[in-house]
Amino acid sequence: MSTAAKLLLIGGTGLIGSAVARQASSYNILVLSRTGAPLTSSTLSLNIQYYKGSALDPFTFRSLLTNTSTVVHTVGTIANQKNYGDQGTYEKLNRDAVVTVARELAASAADEGKKKCLVYFSAASAPPGWILDKRYIGTKREAEKILMGDEFKDQLRVVIFRPGWPELWQYYEFRYRCLPACSPLTTDCHEYPFVVPIAFGAIFASVLFSPFKSHIPDSLTFLTDRPVSDKVVSKAVLRAVEQEDVEGVVDIAKIQELALEWSKVHRK
């Protein structure tokens, strides 16, 4: 068994989780997901182990936390998942899931006598309620408040990523195979979301509206959030994990800064 640090990706078969897995070659990576299997061949690797489970059920992942230094939590939803009943609500997926994971991670940190790192994916902002249910951003902020409260301050270093909402649209599975010429055996080929009308439009909007951000109503600030690619986000995550002084909210500008630092250090 390798002596490399263990990193647990919860919801690790999605766009962001898969991107982190591809970049984190120096870690022993554990991936927890509903299927317990990779979605594409791009994340098949000797340093990745897949487990079937749920962030809402500690029994399915508690043993994975032993000697695991970092957990990256990417579970969440932009809409109630009716297929999962009471387990598919905003409250369960955006808030309760990460709090459940944090409590288990904090317990393992206390048992092992060392502080551990939890990376949580939130959001910079969200469209107004007539476009997207306010519970989406509301449950994200509730989760942030709990994670950054007194309950975890002694056991966990909590890092909260707030990418722009278009990035989260990518992240929550709005995708299809748009690179049909790629061979399934090509390790750098993976499923990308269909981002032409979303991400490109959001980039244009962010350039147009950013200079006037201080004059824009709160309900429209999401228009100033520039999308960031999954590769940039994954590099930023790994840099945040490496840097013990990185804690609290990481906004879009900081995400880009951390990604650049990681590229310089690792020459990738």
Automatic annotation (TrEMBL):
Write down the Gene3D superfamilies for this protein, in alphabetical order. NAD(P)-binding Rossmann-like Domain
Please list the GO terms describing molecular function.
protein-containing complex binding
**Hey, what's the signal peptide range on this chain?**
1-21
At the top level, the lineage of the source is: Eukaryota
Keywords carried by this UniProt record: Signal
Quote the cellular component terms of the Gene Ontology held in the record. mitochondrion
| Listed name of the protein | NAD(P)-binding domain-containing protein
What lineage is on file? Answer: Eukaryota, Fungi, Fungi incertae sedis, Mucoromycota, Mucoromycotina
